[in-house]
Amino acid sequence: MTNIKTELTAHFSPQKSFYRKAYTQQADDGAIMLYSYDTLVAIWKDGDINFITGNDWHLTRTTVKHLNEFVSQMLGYSRSLGVADYRKLQKLANDQKLSLNNL
Protein backbone atom coordinates (compact mmCIF):
# COMPACT_ATOMS: atom_id res chain seq x y z
CA MET A 1 0.00 0.00 0.00
CA THR A 2 1.17 3.46 -0.81
CA ASN A 3 1.94 5.22 2.43
CA ILE A 4 1.52 8.75 1.19
CA LYS A 5 -1.11 10.49 3.25
CA THR A 6 -2.61 13.64 1.84
CA GLU A 7 -4.50 16.11 3.97
CA LEU A 8 -8.11 16.47 2.85
CA THR A 9 -8.45 20.01 1.57
CA ALA A 10 -11.70 21.96 1.33
CA HIS A 11 -12.76 22.46 -2.29
CA PHE A 12 -16.55 22.21 -1.89
CA SER A 13 -16.91 23.00 1.80
CA PRO A 14 -17.13 26.63 2.90
CA GLN A 15 -14.49 25.81 5.51
CA LYS A 16 -10.99 26.99 4.82
CA SER A 17 -9.39 23.91 6.33
CA PHE A 18 -10.10 20.65 8.14
CA TYR A 19 -7.11 21.39 10.38
CA ARG A 20 -5.30 18.11 9.71
CA LYS A 21 -8.18 16.08 11.13
CA ALA A 22 -8.92 14.32 7.82
CA TYR A 23 -6.67 12.81 5.21
CA THR A 24 -6.71 10.41 2.29
CA GLN A 25 -4.38 7.59 1.42
CA GLN A 26 -4.13 5.87 -1.95
CA ALA A 27 -3.55 2.13 -2.22
CA ASP A 28 -1.59 0.44 -4.98
CA ASP A 29 -4.85 -0.87 -6.50
CA GLY A 30 -6.16 2.69 -6.93
CA ALA A 31 -8.49 2.68 -3.94
CA ILE A 32 -8.62 5.94 -2.03
CA MET A 33 -9.23 5.73 1.69
CA LEU A 34 -10.62 8.53 3.84
CA TYR A 35 -9.50 8.82 7.44
CA SER A 36 -11.22 11.11 9.92
CA TYR A 37 -9.44 11.53 13.25
CA ASP A 38 -7.17 8.62 12.29
CA THR A 39 -10.17 6.30 11.82
CA LEU A 40 -10.84 4.76 8.41
CA VAL A 41 -14.37 5.86 7.48
CA ALA A 42 -14.67 5.31 3.72
CA ILE A 43 -12.98 3.66 0.75
CA TRP A 44 -13.59 4.76 -2.83
CA LYS A 45 -12.64 2.54 -5.75
CA ASP A 46 -13.82 2.49 -9.35
CA GLY A 47 -16.82 4.75 -8.69
CA ASP A 48 -18.02 2.81 -5.67
CA ILE A 49 -17.78 3.77 -2.05
CA ASN A 50 -17.67 1.54 0.98
CA PHE A 51 -18.50 3.30 4.23
CA ILE A 52 -16.43 1.86 7.05
CA THR A 53 -18.33 3.33 9.94
CA GLY A 54 -19.10 0.37 12.14
CA ASN A 55 -20.14 2.42 15.14
CA ASP A 56 -22.57 5.32 15.25
CA TRP A 57 -20.14 7.35 17.32
CA HIS A 58 -17.87 7.52 14.26
CA LEU A 59 -20.56 9.59 12.54
CA THR A 60 -19.94 12.87 14.29
CA ARG A 61 -20.87 16.13 12.59
CA THR A 62 -17.20 16.75 11.92
CA THR A 63 -16.66 13.33 10.34
CA VAL A 64 -19.77 13.90 8.21
CA LYS A 65 -18.19 17.15 6.97
CA HIS A 66 -15.12 15.12 6.01
CA LEU A 67 -17.30 12.49 4.28
CA ASN A 68 -19.24 15.16 2.37
CA GLU A 69 -16.04 16.76 1.12
CA PHE A 70 -14.57 13.39 0.14
CA VAL A 71 -17.74 12.28 -1.69
CA SER A 72 -18.00 15.66 -3.44
CA GLN A 73 -14.40 15.45 -4.62
CA MET A 74 -14.92 11.92 -5.92
CA LEU A 75 -18.10 12.95 -7.77
CA GLY A 76 -16.71 16.26 -8.98
CA TYR A 77 -19.67 18.26 -7.69
CA SER A 78 -21.01 19.28 -4.30
CA ARG A 79 -22.97 16.65 -2.40
CA SER A 80 -24.08 17.25 1.16
CA LEU A 81 -25.67 14.65 3.43
CA GLY A 82 -26.44 14.84 7.13
CA VAL A 83 -25.58 12.52 9.99
CA ALA A 84 -28.98 10.77 9.73
CA ASP A 85 -28.44 10.20 5.99
CA TYR A 86 -25.08 8.52 6.57
CA ARG A 87 -26.58 6.38 9.34
CA LYS A 88 -29.27 5.19 6.92
CA LEU A 89 -26.66 4.49 4.24
CA GLN A 90 -24.53 2.67 6.78
CA LYS A 91 -27.43 0.37 7.66
CA LEU A 92 -28.38 -0.16 4.01
CA ALA A 93 -24.83 -0.84 2.92
CA ASN A 94 -23.97 -3.24 5.73
CA ASP A 95 -20.37 -3.25 4.50
CA GLN A 96 -21.35 -3.47 0.83
CA LYS A 97 -20.31 -1.01 -1.83
CA LEU A 98 -22.63 1.79 -2.83
CA SER A 99 -22.33 3.63 -6.09
CA LEU A 100 -21.48 7.28 -5.57
CA ASN A 101 -23.95 8.12 -8.30
CA ASN A 102 -26.78 6.80 -6.10
CA LEU A 103 -26.04 9.22 -3.27
From TrEMBL:
It comes from the Bacteria. It holds the Pfam family DUF8033. Residues 7-74 form the DUF8033 domain. InterPro entries: DUF8033. This is DUF8033 domain-containing protein. It comes from Dolosigranulum pigrum.
